[in-house]
Amino acid sequence: MILGICGGTGSGKTTVAERLAQALGPDRALLLAQDAYYKDSGHLPFEARVRQNFDHPDAVDFGLLI
Are 35 and 44 in contact (CB under 8 A)? Predict the structure, then answer.
């Protein structure tokens, strides 16, 4: 079974997913956090980074998911 948890930034998705994976145990659950796949924004000035919308698909480097 694959379970996807979605919601806006800061809505508690990671917390719910971590607690669910912990309750199921490592032999029954694998947590794949999409946070690791955001495009690098370190090259942008601070003012541009704080305006980024991480809920928009353009923020994710989908090439890393392949």
Answer: no
* Counts for the chain of helices (H) and strands (E), in that order: 2, 0
Residue for token pair 């955001």? 38
How remote is the C-alpha of 47 from its chain's centroid? Answer: 22
pLDDT in tens, 18-56: 999 999 999 999 988 777 788 888 999 999 999 999 888
Amino acid at 33: A
For residue 30, give Cα distances in angstroms to 4, 17, 18, 22, 65: 12, 10, 10, 10, 16
Residue 18 CA to residue 11 CA, distance in Å, equals 14
18: phi then psi, degrees, rounded to nearest 5: -65, -40
The reported pTM is 0.57
